[in-house]
User: Fold this.
Amino acid sequence: MCGIVGFTGTIDAREFLLNGLMRLEYRGYDSAGIALTHGGGLQVLRVKDKVAQLRKAVAASDIEGSCGIGHTRWATHGVPSEVNAHPHCDCSGTIAVVHNGIIENHEQLRETLQAQGHRFVSQTDTEVVAHLVEENYAALCGQHPKLQARLAGACATGQAEQQAALAAPAHAAETTLFVEAVRATVAQLSGSFALGILHADHPGTIVVSRNDSPMVIGSCEQGAVVASDIPALIEYTREVVYLDDRDLAVLHADGSIEYFDPAGVLFTPTTYHVDWSIEDAERGGYPDFMLKEIHEQPRVIRDSIAQRFDAASGKLLFNELPLSAEQLAAVDRVYIVACGTSYHAGLVGKELIEAWSRIPVQVEVASEFRYRNPIVTSDTLVLAITQSGETADTLEAVKQARTAGAHVVALTNVVGSRVTREAQTTLYIKARPEIAVAATKSFLAQVALLTLLGLYLAQERALLSAAQVGEIYAEMQQLPAQIEQILAHAAVIEDAAAQCAQADTALFIGRGVGATTCYEGALKLKEISYLHAEAFAAGEIKHGPIALIDPAGSQDPLLQTPVVAVALQSATYDKMLANIEEVLARGARVVALATEGDTRIAKLTDLVLYIPPVRECLSPITASVPLQLFARAIAIARGCDVDQPRNLAKSVTVE
Ligand code: M6R
Assistant:
């Protein structure tokens, strides 16, 4: 959830650290900080604020150096404050640590360390790591008299008194001792962690390790770099290494990197090529990433469907799927496991896979799936959907499904991410980096891929003819142009949003895949505008939710309860109109999403967003776009930060 960066090399590290933290701010933004080794000492600067403030604080300070680590925090243990901000230090201020994750045994470690004389200053779980490295380093350096005296004194005296001692660093000590101290520390930790560690006695060296939390490493012309995620690195390198659990990487200023397994054995890791560009990770003239990403969706759909159809054979291709037609025929159940927006994409996938391939599909919130002993056999296909490839709940569900013998297919956006190593098969969505916390283009890419997968399963099970598959595929090729058309009418959507922005609660109603579109639309609205929003299958509202419509506001249209109704042409269109009548009769302000050419809907409400006609099964792809714009416009009208909504982080790497 937090963002970590590290740079060691031949140039000033500050720019890399600050730019990298800006690019990782979607991972957390409660507080930020950096530490640099310089002139035999260690300097640390932290703010209880966003990275922009940290940049100002750095400019106003004398902190400098060519080797450093940085952190942007999403608080788990300890309130957001300067003292809880990372990096955290040991007693002597010689060792600095940045951490993403949760150290589960931190209380027990803290008690032991306190009994040994270590003084803690923060409420975080992270601080134990700094003191543990200090302790292990001291033990390993036991035979070195100068170090021994210095380390022993550190715990007994204050940090200021140590400055004189720090002026004479023990350069004689081998970097190996530092690495070994970190290795011993990692062996003592349980929980999830990605760690970047500096030691003043080893300037120019960063030691990193991880367990269950992501860490990407690379070297470049100017040195060696590490970060929690690719966007922080792509300006420097596109050849990256993903560290495995409890492995260690030692980054040196000459750009060389050593990799050690948990037993301390040197190894050569696999390198992955990332084809994202720096432009992908920048706003590119848009006021926020969310709007940029919404506007990228025509391209995303184009990329998602490209090269999936073989005109010669008239067949859809899924060459990445290692399952034969016989194995696919044997699949008796599909589970889709995911969280948040990815879960909503899964709901669309269920509708389509069941309709076309007749395989029963169960969509499960990943955090529930793993604790409820689901019925999984070797004939079960599990689709794990996760944009980031890092979501802890989804990863645990994947592990459980694999243990139970299922074939697990990951649908993810991030090359080499954790889920790609946990699942047997990976299908990449073609969204490119998504920076805004609110998922938009990744949702469309997930739905497009699930649509193709649904068609493919039906094709392989001989339930759809080549002509039927080809016809739907041809219609999918029209989607980018249709999305362009919707984007061109953003002003109409913004107008409707302006009329709903003052409400306390909004309801979303739809039927079939229209209901799944509503679930995602309501999530978008509540997460970025803090306007309470709930979605329901339209037929359900009369069984309870309709009570939420407050007739008191009916005198003032701006205070009426907004009900967003997805009322596209479909088999249930007439039923939707009846549901709209029901909410209107209770004083709701209806915003209808309707198909171009619909003449009936305008008789019910003046707030109609028309979108081009598409086959019902493809409508979540087009209909989600106006709902994204609607949510964003309301968030802006309410003065919210659309890219960094409160309390959230983009990658949720803790359970
Ligand atoms: O990276 P993932 O797809 O696994 O993330 C799952 C959710 O955390 C994510 O979709 C979240 O709900 C978004 N903020 C929604 O916009």
Observations:
- The chain has 21 helices and 26 strands.
- Residues 441-460 form the longest helix (20 residues).
- The longest strand covers residues 95-103.
- The chain has three domains: 2-276, 289-477, 483-643.
